[in-house]
Write a structure and sequence with these properties.
CATH class of the largest domain: Alpha Beta
Radius of gyration: 23 Å
Oligomer: single chain
Strand content: 5-15%
Helix content: 55-70%
CATH architecture of the largest domain: 3-Layer(aba) Sandwich
Mean pLDDT: 86
Bound molecules: guanosine-5'-diphosphate
Low-confidence stretches: 1-8
Distance between the termini: 37 Å
Number of helices: 16
Shape: globular
Number of strands: 7
């Protein structure tokens, strides 16, 4: 039965994936992403081989991050911006980081029906958030998906997220330019915004500046510009911009695009663009090392058997936490040599 399914789908070799992604075969790109998103070990190894071969083809897009509370208009905005870019002949991929979907089984970012029009555009590729368990898993999958999309030749990769937990920080760590979509009532919104997020923003957009809301949006712009002025600059030589926009009518989308262009040009001129990417890549590397160490540690046979006793002993005050921790750490890989034989 399984063989029949495989036959129908056509089993792909590593080479098929590599060539397919390079040629922007969308069906193969989608399957390569599924491979990257898989939690199965055998998929992991193929995915890493595919990614390694494609690394020289990556790095040529502009990576944009977009955040905002549910209802701020993220999908409407991305659709408007995405279609504008697609119509200019660019190719646009939209990815999402939505750790909520794996935690609550309900997605805050919504399902595949979002950005319907953009999804159907031949120059666009819209992929919903992977359901990868913890944020760390989702982040790795999204980063690798981003690389696959770059290898497939997408000019712009937009990564969206809602501010759940650390997801904004995660998205900031994988993009060149970070935008936040706000609504009017700026003071209230700022109070709801987590500390530190304001300092990661390159461009702030006050959405829904249409109809009777225009004046309020303009007021919010003045207020937010003033507040941003007092915060430390995210990027040297760049004062974060505040703009009003209507994702619904399209007003302000072009201007927003102009700001993104100006920002990236400036970052490239001052070498901050490259420096940021290098730093992001090394940070990613270190966080993978740390994640893997933790995983290996807690799945180690000896650690697993010793852990409950040590926890009890710590609870009952029979051993100091420091001594217990070092005892446990020494247990790791105790049988490694034996296991390898
Ligand atoms: P998301 O949850 O941030 O992705 O928000 P959506 O894009 O789904 O938008 C939430 C609601 O706001 C929808 O009903 C949109 O039609 C509406 N909306 C989005 N952008 C605008 C806008 O610029 N003006 C107005 N008036 N409504 C908008």
């Amino acid at each position: 039965m399984k063989r029949e399914t495989n036959h129908k789908r056509g089993v792909l070799t590593t080479e098929d994936y590599i060539v397919g992604v390079k040629n922007n075969n969308r069906a193969i790109l989608a399957r390569a992403i599924t491979l990257v998103e898989s939690n199965a070990k055998r998929h992991f190894h193929i995915a890493q081989d595919v990614l390694s071969a494609l690394i020289p083809e990556t790095g040529n897009s502009i990576r944009l991050g977009i955040t905002g509370v549910p209802g701020a208009g993220k999908s409407t905005f991305i659709e408007a911006l995405g279609i504008m870019l697609c119509e200019q002949g660019f190719r646009v991929a939209v990815l999402a980081v939505d750790p909520s979907s794996s935690l609550s089984r309900g997605s805050i970012l919504g399902d595949k029906t979002r950005m319907d029009q953009l999804s159907r555009h031949p120059n666009a590729f819209v992929r919903p958030s992977p359901t990868g368990g913890a944020l760390g898993g989702v982040a790795r999958k999204t980063r690798e998906t981003l690389l696959l999309c770059e290898a497939a030749g997408y000019d712009f990769i937009i990564v969206e997220t809602v501010g759940v937990g650390q997801s904004e920080v995660t998205v900031r760590s994988m993009v060149d330019c970070f935008l936040v979509l706000m609504l009017t009532g700026a003071g209230d919104e700022l109070q709801g915004m987590k500390k530190g997020i304001m300092e990661m923003i390159d461009i702030m957009l006050i959405n829904k500046a249409d109809g009777t809301n225009i004046q309020k949006a303009e007021q919010a712009k003045v207020e937010l510009t003033r507040i941003l002025h007092y915060l430390p600059q995210t990027s040297e030589g760049w004062q974060p911009e505040v703009q009003t926009v209507s994702a619904l009518t399209g007003k302000g989308i072009k201007e927003c695009w102009k700001s993104i262009e100006t920002f990236t040009e400036k970052m490239k001129q001052t070498q901050q663009f490259e420096q940021r990417r290098k730093k992001q890549a090394t940070n990613w590397f270190y966080s993978l090392v740390e994640e893997q160490l933790l995983l290996d540690f807690y799945s180690d046979k000896n650690v697993k058997s010793e852990l409950p006793h040590l926890v009890k002993a710590v609870e009952n005050g029979h051993i100091s936490p420091t001594k217990a921790a070092f005892t446990l750490l020494r247990n790791m890989y105790k049988d490694d040599a034996e296991l390898k034989q």
